[in-house]
Amino acid sequence: MEHPPAMLRSDHTALAVKNLGLSREFYEFLGGRVVSKPSPHFVEMMLGDLRLHMVKAPDPEAKASASAPRLEHFCLSVDR
């Protein structure tokens, strides 16, 4: 028996950012709105249909590549 194709859609995208406050301000300027409780380590925003998670990047001294924003993860949801 064949299964119907699963429907994939973006659930959220997470970015590791050096400065959470400045990143939040930038995405709010673009029209984003915060939907999570305030935290010094995490912020969840809605930017149009995109759910964006931002997490504080590791200390740049501990990892040289952490000085620039990077994709933390990309999450898909599957409807069956």
Description:
This protein is mainly beta and 80 residues long. Helices cover 12% and strands 45% of the residues. Strands 2-3-4-1-5 form a five-stranded mixed β-sheet, with helices on one face.
Summarize this structure briefly.
This protein has 80 residues and is mainly β.
The tally of beta strands, per DSSP, is 5
Q: What is Rg?
A: 15 Å
In terms of structural class, how would the helical and strand content be classed?
mainly beta
Question: Which ranges are low-confidence, i.e. pLDDT below 50, for 5 or more consecutive residues?
Answer: none
Task: Return the average pLDDT rounded to an integer.
Answer: 80
Sheet with most strands: strand arrangement: 2-3-4-1-5
User: How would a crystallographer describe the biggest sheet?
Assistant: 5 strands, mixed
Shape: elongated
Span of the ends, CA to CA: 15 Å
What's the topology here?
Layout: E1 7-17, H1 20-29, E2 33-34, E3 42-47, E4 50-56, E5 70-79
Parallel strand pairs: 1-4
Antiparallel strand pairs: 1-5, 2-3, 3-4
Labels describing this entry:
single chain, mainly beta, five-stranded mixed sheet, 45% strand
